[in-house]
Amino acid sequence: MADKRKSVSLAVGRGEKLPVSKGAGLTAKGRAKYNAATGSKLKAPAPNPKTKADAARKKSFCARMGAVAAKAKDGERARASLKRWKCS
Which DSSP category does 77 fall into? Predict the structure, then answer.
C-alpha cells in the first residue's frame, strides 16, 4: 500500500519554523503552508491550556515528543519544543 502523505518543505529561513533558540516548532505561516498542502488542521501550541481539550492535547504532545527526544540521535529540536510547551 502506497503512502499518500505529501511532503512539505518547511524552513527556518523562510519563517515557517522557529529556530531552536526560540523553542523550535512551526510558526503560523508554517502551519498555514502545511495545512494547505496536506489538508491537515494543525493548531498553535497550547502550553497553558484553558480547556479540557487543550489540556488533553498538551498531555498527548508531551508524551509523543518526549519519546522522540529520548530516541533521537540529536533531539535538539524535540527538546526545545518540549521546553516551549512547558512539558515537565
Answer: H
Q: How does residue 1 score in pLDDT terms, banded at 50, 70 and 90? A: very low
Name which of 56, 57, 55, 23 is nearest 43 in CA terms: 57
- Each residue's pLDDT tens digit, 48-70: 899 999 999 999 999 999 999 99
Q: Residues 6 or more apart from 11 whose CB is under 8 A from it? A: 17
**DSSP result, the chain:** ----PPP----TTTTSB--GGGT-SB-HHHHHHHHHHH--------SS--SHHHHHHHHHHHHHHHHHHHH-TT-HHHHHHHHHTT--
pTM for this model (two decimals): 0.74
The residue ranges of every structural domain in the chain are: 20-84
Question: What does the alpha-carbon distance between residue 51 and residue 43 come to, in Å, rounded to a whole number?
Answer: 14
The helix/strand/coil state of 24 is coil
